[in-house]
Amino acid sequence: MTLALRRLALSLAAACTVLPVQQPAGPQTPLRRDLMGALEPGALVGIAVRDLESGNGVTLNDDRRYPMQSVYKFPLALAVLHRVDRGELALDQVVHIDRKELLPGTWSPLRDAHPDADVDISLAELLRYVVSQSDNNGCDVLFRLMGGTAPVERYVHGLGVRDIAIAATEQEMHRDWQVQYRNWARPSALVDLLEQFQRRRIVSEKSQAFLWGLLVETTTGPNRLKGRLPSNVVVAHKTGSSGSNKQGVTAAVNDIGILVLPDGRHIALAVLVAETRAPDEASERIIANVARIVVDHALAGHVLK
What pLDDT, in 10s, does the model give residues 174-186? Predict the structure, then answer.
């Protein structure tokens, strides 16, 4: 069987598979029981929760590689800001974007604002498009500035977070459905990265405050982590979405972030929904329910484990 036929067979097999509700191994604590109750048949859901003050946490289905989609714009932004801190880039520097880089057929508020012209934009504004609005064309411009995906992956691995792979641009993912699986992460690895960011171990205070603001201003995925939370819980988050293929399979509906409770406690949370035939609304409901369960347990004074 040729490689192309083998990939096709695997894709069709995945499309025809109905996933049961996962039954993660581990002690049945109240939080784990309630999180398992939020799972639904037909989707693989990976969850990692960590109380950043106590260090307590829990994971479900963390032993798999989940496609990140635009979640990987968070580590990309960290890598860019690391170079800003080193003086290699500057937030106020002007980035020239040729109109040929503003590709059609992909999510790009930047292109929509400048449909027929080259663009000169500050690096700060470009990061705002990429992080807060999840702009795909802007993402690839940042990869160009960084010298490709490999330096970004090396940066993340250099932080000691190994279970994250960043290997393909947005344009490459749009060309081939299978390519998105090269950009993967375990939920716990994403929470590791969120924790390092929150504890100000990665970038300078100025860069940390700037990126925190972009994450809080995120406009995508309002029905995911934020969907069922009280308005007094601050959510700094980054979403990712694959859309569906011709077989009706959605590879990724994701949201990761840091929840700030009214008493000032911080909870890092990653919820990755993969390989489902359900509409995005169903996957977003899972994410919203998981976030609400975690917050309810925390506000009730329960240990998050």
Answer: 999 999 999 999 9
Q: What is the CATH number of the domain that holds 225?
A: 3.40.710.10
Q: Which amino acid is at 269?
A: L
Q: pLDDT tens across 181-214, in order?
A: 999 999 999 999 999 999 988 999 999 999 999 9
With beta carbons less than 8 A apart as the criterion, state whether 262 and 89 touch: no
How far apart CA 170 and CA 56 sit, in angstroms, is 35
262 and 295 Cβ atoms separated by less than 8 Å: no
Structure tokens at 15: 């499309």
Sequence letter at residue 235:
V
User: Mind telling me the catalytic residues?
Assistant: 70, 170
Asked if 67 contacts 181 with a C-beta cutoff of 8 angstroms, the reply is yes
Report the domain count for the chain: 1
Predicted structure pTM score: 0.91
Residue 5 lies in a domain: no
